[in-house]
Each structure stands twice: as C-alpha cells, then as structure tokens.
Amino acid sequence: MNPLHATVTHPNIARPPIVSEGAITPEVVCEFEHLATIFFRNIKGSIDKDDKVSHLLGCFHDTLVRDWITCEGDTLAELSFADFLAQLRERWLDSDWEQSLVTQICGSRLDPAKEKFETWALRLQKLNVTLCGTSSHLSDTQLRSQLEAALDEDLRILAAEEKANKTDGLLPWIEKVRNIDRKRQTDRKRRQEEMELFWRGPKRQFNPTQTWPAAAPGPSTDPPGVLAHRSATRQIPPERRLLQDHEGCFKCRHFYAGHRSNTCTTVLSGKGYKALTPCDA
Fold first, then answer.
1. Cα 157 to Cα 240: distance, rounded to the nearest angstrom
2. pLDDT (tens digit, 9 = 90+) per residue, 202-235?
C-alpha cells in the first residue's frame, strides 16, 4: 500500500464510508463506490436518489478534496451518484487512467519464475474491476481470451492437454488452469527436492572429467572443435533434469534461457566446464 495514496474505510455500514488524506487513485474510487452502495442499502430509512450525493460529501478528509467540495458543493449535491463518480474521476485521476489500466492488463504476461497463475490472474481481474462502468471494461469473454493468450508456453501446452479450452465461463476456466498450474508447481518442487537429495548424497561424487558413452561405438569424423563442444554440452541425467525444471538450454547450459538448444547460437570451447547444481538455478 502506497502511504501517499488515500484509503477507504467503512467502520459502520449505516454511516458513509471514510476516504482518508492522500491521492485519489482508480482503486480508491472503485472501493468508495462499492462501500457507498453498501451504505445506501443499510442506512435507516430510504434515501431519495437525488439526495445520495449530499450524504457523501463529508466522506473526504483530504484538504484539497474538501476544498473542491466546498467550492463546488452546491453543484455536486445535485448530481446523481453515477455522475458524481464521473466528476470525481475527471477531477482527481490522470486523464489517461483508463488506458493505463488497459495497457497493464493487455501487456501482462505470466512469468512462472516470478508469479503463480492464481496470483497473476487475480491481479488482472482486480485491474479489470477498477474499469467497471467505463467503456474500457473487459467482458468475461474478453478477459478470458486475454489470459489465455498471455499464458507461458509450458502452461499453455499443459492446459491444452487437459482440454481447459473446453471449459465454459471465465471463473471455471480460471479454476481449471489454476489446478493445472498447482500440479505443475508441486511436480517441479518435488523434482527439485529429488535433485537436492541426489547432490547431497554422501557417496555420490561427480568427476568433471568423466564422460558418458555414446549410443554406438566407432571413430568420429568430427573436427576437434566440435568434439570439445559436445564434451562441454553433454549433461549427466540429473543435470539435464535440472535444466528441464528451470527451462534451461541443453547447449549453452543457461537457466531460463528463453530459447531451445536447436536455436541456441552459443559456441562453447569446453574450457572451464563445471557441473550444474540446484544452487546455480
């Protein structure tokens, strides 16, 4: 929470919510709208729709906002609740606030190394809720399409294998993909634990000069440089699994390389070869 931003609290649902000092943000306006609606439903007696705004003008504790209300109070009190919210956004939010939120939603890509699918999807849903009441708000169908397109490649493949695209509705689809991602995270954690146990084993020592037999014996016709490169890029099985778990390249041996070995342009000399361990990931 940014200490420079205003916050909205509602200690008594039969009284108007309270907006603290600080900058008004799209999230603050969204929360204020929600809590004000709860207040209207729980106040003793009914409120005429033309009197709703007059009950809310005392909610704001920021000096600048109160000064605005003091100067424009008579005009603001005559507005409908929806029109008052529009005026509040126009006066206190950046002119490009809608486009900024849309850009955050449409520009976001799931990075499994930094964020779980569940957390990522919830964050984008909250951004979209902030756009409610505007022409930029995404429908459930539009938001689902955006989430599907922004999945990482591995999760997209797993979701296709589980036929997640056959699931109807946004929330059931999110639940389906969330469960797939949870299983992926669990499997990855288990494999990493197996790797750590392997490397900590008291009787397991790795000899960096050790080589592994080829599939078939026979003299090689490759030049010396190619042989050195193959020696440098040959991984023992645990090392290969470690690269798989961290989306690494089997050729350059970099974790989260962003490419596959068949497209890797790195040329290794074989000098300074060092076995990879989970600590390198």
1. 21
2. 655 555 555 545 545 555 444 444 444 444 444 4
- Residue 211: Cβ-neighbour burial (10 angstroms; 0-12, 13-18, 19+): exposed
pLDDT in tens, 109-130: 999 999 999 999 999 999 999 9
Tokens at 72, concatenated: 């424009």
Domain ranges of the chain: 8-92, 97-182, 226-280
Q: Report the C-alpha gap between 81 and 79 in whole angstroms.
A: 6
- d(Cα 249, Cα 270) in Å, to the nearest integer? 16
- Whether residue 100 is predicted with pLDDT greater than 80 in this model: the reply is yes
Side-chain-facing half-sphere of 39: CA atoms under 13 Å: 20
CB 273 within 8 A of CB 232: yes
Structure tokens at 187: 């499997």
Query: Alpha-carbon distance 202 to 194, whole Å?
Result: 14
Q: Is residue 259 within 8 Å of 265, Cβ to Cβ? A: no
277 against 94, higher pLDDT: 94
Neighbours of 161 (CB within 10 A): 9
Report the 3 state secondary structure along 175-243: HHHHHHHHHHHHHHHHHHHHHHHHHHCCCCCCCCCCCCCCCCCCCCCCCHHHHHHHHHHCCCHHHHHHH
The burial class, CB within 10 Å (0-12 / 13-18 / 19+), for 52 is buried
Q: Which residue has the higher pLDDT, 183 or 2?
A: 183
